Amino acid sequence: MPLRPLTLLITLLHAYIGLRLLPALAVLTGAWPLLLAALVLSAATMPLPFVGARGAGRRAPLSDGWKWLGLLSMGWFSSMFVLTLVRDLGLLLTWIVAAFGGWAFDGPRTQAWSAAAVPFMATLVSLIGFFNARRTASVVRVDVPIRDLPASLEGFTIAQLSDIHVGTTIRRGYLQRIVNAVNRLGADMVAITGDLVDGTVAELRDHVAPLGSLRARHGTFVVTGNHEYYAGAHAWIDELRRLGLRVLLNEHVVLQTRNVKGAQTDEEAFDSALVVAGVTDYTAGHFDAAHASDPLRALHGAPPLVRTRLLLAHQPRSAPAAAEAGYQLQLSGHTHGGQFFPWNLFVPLQQPFTAGLHRLREMWIYTSRGTGYWGPPKRFGAPSEITLLRLVPERP
Q: What are the residue ranges spanned by the domains of the chain?
């Protein structure tokens, strides 16, 4: 949306909150000007992250500070707006029930106390959400039962990172803590399932550098997310490869998980192998036709004797095509698990899975809630995660 209409919309929504809360709050306390000042500050600063995106490179430290303030305002405003709507709905239902039930309803008192509750709850949720977003993601351990899993692959571990969104508020130190946590896991491989950055290589090269120190037995594999295409995907692909990460663009690699020098047959050699495929983002074809996402193409040339096949795909909606292509497991992200209430309720309108492990026909799909966050530094009801997935045999 262009900046002027966006600013007008933001102003009108803040005006709605003020008109619904301030008169009622003034009946209860003389502190209502504090809320008025907070609303004015929020309305004034919320557009700033978008202004900074257009004027990148100018007065960068000041710009980042204002963007920080705008993003904090965005998180607080989101809760204020939702809670104001909930309050209005609650007042309407209470008035209807009182009118039809014939019982007394102290309208002014109820309105005053509910008006005070909205900014209190919005601020509390925002503070908790800020703490949840800024802490280092916890490790979530998930066993994935794979049918006919070769004995040599039992216990194979994958550390999944997704949706870190290195940018204005997520910088080198934040990412280094994630890398340190992953390295302590000693995983067999690391998978990064897209939306790693929110900015250009020139802006963020130094902040992404810690990824070069990721350690896993078979290395680190990356697929693009939609935000890579907003930020210049081709330059980022080159930079990630320079750091030693393997970027999979509708292609695959075959990982040999044990020494097979003594294998007598191809079947013995391939029995312990794992196909790791990766596709470009589901929408990548809109940015570059050559990057159109294709799970089937990613398997082209894969040894048919390698029965265990893993797909890295940023968006869960790649799953139907992946299941059709014959994968046993897909790892995705994109949804952030909704990041904070109530937006998690809207994710199913676009994606088939919001978070966690699910089954689609013969394929498992795991959707990460994300390791960082996007936009407001706020997570509430959808904690970030570093996922450690372990392949185990499916039991009858």
A: 3-134, 138-393
